[in-house]
Design brief:
Arc Repressor Mutant, subunit A, single chain, 188 residues, 2 domains, globular
Length: 188
């Protein structure tokens, strides 16, 4: 999309409003620090802002944002001085680096891995009861607020909250691999 089609400032603002909360939660999950998470997300949006005139809107923008958060978090963790005596593979940094290196394989292999992970996530979501699945997908895919979901489905906000809690609990059990849970937003 060229800069003639859409105001790049408006585009960056839209992306910020649409994805900020989930990116902050993702960064927090990776870093374990709320302040660091907020800083990392701000950094990603600052970079987007700096490149706003070159910005090309694609369907992959959500993937790009999550990947940027992931990379910034990895860089942050690498810059920290760890004094823990745990084996490296058991530290957060070690686990994230394992994911990082595993994700930097050939494009064909990446595509196969992504498709397999996406299949696993989709299968897990499809095991949810119908209304629970509908609520979950409205929340994550369409990023509707609980009140909007309740209004659309004709149910109470409390019921929406219960469905979301049940969905997340079920997915945590079905997707036991912590790294897969961290990547869940990429597949939704």
């Amino acid at each position: 999309m060229s800069s003639n089609d859409v105001n790049p400032i408006h585009t960056v603002e839209q992306l910020f409003r649409k994805h900020y909360k989930i990116l902050r939660a993702y960064a927090y999950r990776l870093s374990g620090d709320k302040n660091v998470a907020e800083d990392l997300v701000q950094d990603v949006y600052y970079e987007l802002w700096r490149k706003r005139d070159e910005l090309v809107m694609e369907e992959a923008i959500k993937y790009y944002l999550f990947r940027a958060i992931y990379t910034k978090t990895l860089n942050y963790l690498n810059s920290k001085n760890y004094t823990e005596q745990e084996p490296f593979e058991q530290t957060t940094e070690g686990r994230i680096q394992q994911i990082y290196w595993q994700s930097h394989t050939s494009n064909q292999e990446d595509s196969l891995i992504y498709k397999e992970l996406q299949k696993e996530v989709t299968q897990a979501i499809n095991t949810l009861p119908e209304q629970c699945r509908t609520v979950f997908l409205l929340r994550w895919n369409e990023e509707l607020k609980n009140q909007e979901i309740a209004k659309r489905l004709g149910i109470s906000v409390k019921t929406v909250e219960k469905h979301i809690t049940k969905a997340l609990s079920t997915l945590r059990i079905l997707l036991k691999d912590a790294e897969l849970l961290l990547l869940l937003p990429l597949f939704l």
